[in-house]
Amino acid sequence: MSSPRLDFVTCASPAGTHRMAYWEWGDPDNDKVLLCVHGLTRTGRDFDTLARRMAGEYRVICPDVAGRGASDWLANPAFYTVPQYVADMITLLARLQPATLHWVGTSMGGIIGMALGGSAILSERMRAAGVGRPKGGPVLPQGGWHIGKMVINDVGPHLAPQAIARIGEYVGSPVELADFDAAVAYVREVSASFGPHSDAQWRELAEHVFVERNGRWDKHYDVKIAVPFAVRDEAAVAAGEQFLWQAFEALDCPVLVLRGEQSDLLTPETVADMCRRNPRAHAVEIPGVGHAPTLMDDSQITPVAHFLLEG
Questions:
Q1: How far is CA 217 from CA 190, 191, 209, 220, in A?
Q2: Cβ of 144: how many Cβ atoms within 10 Å?
Q3: In 77-104, which positions are buried (b, 16+ CB within 10 angstroms) versus exposed (e)?
Q4: Under DSSP, is residue 234 helix (H, G, I), strand (E, B) or coil?
Q5: What is the pLDDT of residues 248-293, one digit of tens each?
Q6: pLDDT the model gives residue 120
Q7: Nearest one of 231, 190, 282 to 80, comparing CA atoms
Q8: Phi and psi at residue 153, in whole multiples of 5°?
Q9: Domains in the chain: ranges and CATH
Q10: Residue 255: in which H helix or E strand, if any?
Q11: Percentage of the chain with pLDDT > 90?
């Protein structure tokens, strides 16, 4: 299959309903699902190369998180937050009904995966103990799916502040360019940390993140995703990090942590801490790459495929 199918699921937020798009590869009747979730300003089409590789084994699902790609923009940008994204993924999983669920999350997608998978386990433990949901965690349904394996691509519970500041410099800035070549040049510049790519790969990386409107090219996403991202409440940041550590430690599946060798978001110290706190986690470092590995090259896809398919 050279291109995916596009479908939508209707999700809810406190401000109303919105449609979340998802790109689907492989046999739609396959109940073994690989859910791939992209980074902050990217789309589900980032996983095209990986999806083509894995579609023979899985029904591969690559959503466009709300406010990005083919998905609706939220009426209230205050809800561009991880709890909302987790709620949307729960709605998607209710549609998919996977018998086996594996997860690949790049950057923000890894955070969503940790929050979703870890919260589900913490919530079950607390229900069994007769107490409420984990503080700061999303409300999760009882029973259903369980993440069997998780790949966390260049992110962790602790995020280096200097990297957050770097990302914040461009995420909320509108961009309007004269042609697609200028869009490719822009992506090369702001995504230089992705590491070396061919000209064709840079064009592919730009293809789904810039759209033509009235003869001009601008970003595919709602720049208001930066509204909650830009609010730096130190107490809230600390509470969020604590929750993510709890969620990560609770993951009871094999976890592969990928780190770009030159990443400024995920430090070697955080990776070591992740592997210490959850003995089911192990790490692979991708040479010559910063934040984040794009999973377009065989050298990056092979360890992911081996991890997901082994055993």
A1: 16, 17, 10, 9
A2: 13
A3: bebbbbbbbbbbbbebbeebebebbbbb
A4: helix
A5: 999 999 999 999 999 999 999 999 999 999 999 999 999 999 999 9
A6: 72
A7: 231
A8: -100, 100
A9: 5-309 (3.40.50.1820)
A10: strand 255-260
A11: 79
Quick one: tokens of 210? 């810039």
User: Phi/psi of residue 32, each to 5°?
Assistant: -95, 110
Sign of CA dihedral 297, 299, 300, 305: positive
pLDDT at 284: 98
Cβ pair 238, 121 in contact under 8 A: no
H-only helix segments in 45-138:
48-54, 82-96, 108-129
**pTM (two decimals):** 0.92
The pLDDT, as a whole number, for residue 7 is 98
pLDDT tens, position by position, 56-82: 999 999 999 999 999 999 999 999 999
Rounded to a whole number of angstroms, the CA Rg of the chain reads: 18
Laid out side by side, the sheet with 176-177 consists of 176-177, 216-219, 210-213
The token pair that represents 168 in the structure block:
């914040």
**Does a cis peptide bond (omega within 30 degrees of 0) precede residue 99?**
no
pLDDT at 141 over 50: no
Candidates 194, 207, 168, 177; CA nearest to 40 is 168
**Which amino acid is present at 30?**
N
Write the DSSP string, 186-220: HHHHHTGGG----HHHHHHHHHTTEEEETTEEEES
**195 pLDDT more than 80:** yes
Whether 142 shows a pLDDT value over 60: the answer reads no
Token duo for residue 248: 């990560």
Q: Cα–chain-centroid distance for residue 31?
A: 21
